[in-house]
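Notes taken during the Thursday session

The instructor put the following on the board and asked us to keep it in front of us for the whole hour. The protein is Dirigent protein. We were told not to look anything up and to reason only from what is written here. First, the residues (190 in total):
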Amino acid sequence: MIPKTLTRTAIFFLLLLACSASYLGPRIQARARPNPCKRMIFYFHDIIYNGHNSKNATAAIVGAPSWGNHTILASQNHFGNIVVFDDPITLDNNLHSHPVGRAQGFYLYDKKDIFTSWLGFSFVFNSTRHRGSINFAGADPLMNKTRDISVIGGTGDFFMARGVATLMTDAFEGEVYFRLRVDIKLYECW
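Then, after some discussion, the predicted structure tokens were revealed:
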């Protein structure tokens, strides 16, 4: 026969073990992502100056490593190049469509071993549909099919906007032209 004290002690420790096992740490609950308060898709078209296309270039190399120059992107994944741009934004992927604004800012190639860049730019709208700007910043790992960068603010219709923009390279023509599809999801709208 098992003494009552031993039985009570064993039950007490089993209960204590069960309680402590249920509280081994904070439980992570999957939070549902909120729906965006605004979603828009735009395309921006970047034509890099290559020494021969000054009439239609919308971007130029303004900084280059010592082994590079200002008309040809550097070797080694363009590492060290800084490019400023003033690109047209369109509602579809046609470069010749009526622009609804301009993508203005810069990108810099920041890694030697991987083709990647860092972006800082604004969409400045001039259409009757949208007024103001949306500001973006973030790393752009160019070899990924889609990449997310942060929407960090805005003005006018986009006052204090916050969200995420998913970038996808929609077209690429060597070292001279690329087109980005920008899917903007705003989660803070005023």
